[in-house]
Amino acid sequence: MSKTATINMRVNPEVKSDAESIFASLGMSLTEAINVFLHKSIMEGGLPFDVRQPRYNATTEAAMREARDIMGSRRKCWCKDRSALTLP
């Protein structure tokens, strides 16, 4: 059995650069960080973190619905001076 195996993957260059900077500040290379991730995944028997849809509280969900309504021109947007904002 060989000591190493090669993994080829495609990733956004900015994501790669940002990750390299973060891991360099921790004293490790991107390869070492990926190895840590893989070992931790094996120990956990899956991803070493939760993967789920974001959940927002009722206030945030209402604000998001309002923003979607405004963007869809289904609702008027009011300025601070209480004048209606004309949407395109």
Kindly state the percentage of residues in helix. 40-55%
Distance between the termini: 65 Å
Low-confidence stretches: none
Please give the count of helices. 3
Order of helices and strands: HHHEE
What is the subunit organization of this protein?
A: single chain
Radius of gyration: 23 Å
Arithmetic mean of pLDDT: 85
Q: Structural class, judged by helices and strands?
A: mainly alpha
Physical arrangement of strands within the biggest beta sheet? 1-2
Total E-strand runs: 2
Strand content: under 5%
Characterization of this structure:
This protein has 88 residues and is mainly alpha-helical. It is 48% helix and 5% strand. The protein has 3 helices and 2 strands. It has helices spanning 13-25, 30-44, 58-71, and strands at residues 77-78, 84-85. Strands 1-2 form a two-stranded antiparallel ribbon. Strand 1 (77-78) and strand 2 (84-85) form a beta hairpin. It is elongated, with a radius of gyration of 23 Å. The N and C termini lie far apart (65 Å). The mean pLDDT is 85.
Short description:
This protein has 88 residues and is mostly helical.
Write a concise keyword list for the protein shown above.
88 residues; mainly alpha; two-stranded antiparallel sheet; 5% strand
Architecture blueprint of SSEs:
Layout (H helix, E strand, L loop, with lengths): L12 H13 L4 H15 L13 H14 L5 E2 L5 E2 L3
Antiparallel strand pairs: 1-2
